Amino acid sequence: MKLTFFVILLIVIIKSVSSQVLCLFAQVNGLYTCTATIINPLGLNNFTQVEGIHFTGGTDEDVVRIERNAVSNTLNFPSIFCNQFGNTESIIIDNIGIERIDENAFADCRDLEYLLLQSNRLREIHENAFSENLQLSILDLSNNQLIRLPGNLFRNQINLYFLQLASNQLQELPSDIFNQLSELGMLNLDSNQLQDLPEGIFDNLPNLYYLSFSFNQIVKLRENLIDKLYSIQNFLAPFNQIIYIPRNFFDGNPYLSSIIISGNNLTILELNPIPMLSDFWFEHNQINAIDERIFNNVTLRSLNGGPNPCADRNGIISNPTNDDIRAALHRCFDNFNPIETTTTPGEEITKPTTEPNGCEVGNIEERICQLEAENAELRARLEYLEKIVLGR
Ligand SMILES: *[C@@H]1O[C@H](CO)[C@@H](O)[C@H](O)[C@H]1NC(C)=O
Ligand SMILES: *[C@@H]1O[C@H](CO)[C@@H](O)[C@H](O)[C@H]1NC(C)=O
Ligand SMILES: *[C@@H]1O[C@H](CO)[C@@H](O)[C@H](O)[C@H]1NC(C)=O
């Protein structure tokens, strides 16, 4: 009874104030956090104070994390938050109806590392929105309504590691949009409306190891598209309308291990050898011929090759032997006599010609070691994201 009364009172108070920004302060997993209620349906940005009562001893400077209260409803993220809580490292403001990011929204959060903006109604982002956030490491803009992005939006994101742009309505990308992202490890462009990936778009991503653009409308892959993705391990392009992959398309990618090109319009698969190929999925295409030499001297972890005109539906085959490959795909080959794998761990592979900054080239073990370290770092970061930032 009493509780109901208070809830009603609270709703009356919230409704009677047209715009409001306030914090509930608390220690969450050792991080002094502002749980923000932002009621700002007009998208005002002239607030002078975020209300709220600190914990004993706590000050505005102690706040390192801002997380939205689910009752929030706002068209923007008022810049008063970063004005007042300048030491904030994580901002989690998903699912509260944000439609635009103003120029100065995050400008005063110089230490910002994690910014989660997914599942809003973002249509516009000011080109200077992130210009002061040099520490930004994880940025999630997925599940919004972005149609285009300013070409220089990420010009200062020299520390960005994870960029999530999936499930928007992006129709095109400026060719220089990722040019400064020298630390980027993962890029997700899934479920947009991209018809083209312009010349040079991935030319300055020496550390990218995961690229996914599933569920777009890409028809042609430019011959040099991923030539400079020296570190790429996972190439995911399923469910586009790709009609052809040039034979030398993967030649500049010595560490590539997963190629997922299912659900496209490929009719033929003729690729140069891919030494570390491990997962290879190309079911649901129109493939009627494969150059069998792709299976020479590789040890697959998984294969999914059918249905295709030359292969029956066969699902994912784990650790396929040459006999398994022959059984699954025999109608795709003229002749199938794969050379068995001769690689032994630690063996030298052909020296790649390109060398990213600070990356030791040569001994394959060194490189695998380095990639494992990077993966461990990603796991640690994602764990942090799940457990602390998302409070799970
Ligand atoms: C902010 O702008 C709105 C609309 O222009 C105005 O009604 C309101 O009084 C302003 N608030 C402050 C604190 O200046
Ligand atoms: C790809 O195949 C689908 C279904 O078979 C078809 O609707 C589409 O037009 C094809 N696209 C291209 C570019 O050939
Ligand atoms: C198999 O691959 C290894 C390492 O990639 C290479 O050194 C070797 O020459 C290859 N063997 C054949 C027969 O292609």
From TrEMBL:
One of its GO terms (cellular component) is extracellular space. The keyword Transcription regulation does not apply. SUPFAM superfamilies: L domain-like. Keywords: Leucine-rich repeat, Repeat, Signal. InterPro entries: Leu-rich_rpt, Leu-rich_rpt_typical-subtyp, LRR_5, LRR_dom_sf, SLRP. PROSITE patterns: LRR (PS51450). PANTHER family: AGAP008170-PA, NEPHROCAN. This is Uncharacterized protein. It comes from Polypedilum vanderplanki (Sleeping chironomid midge).
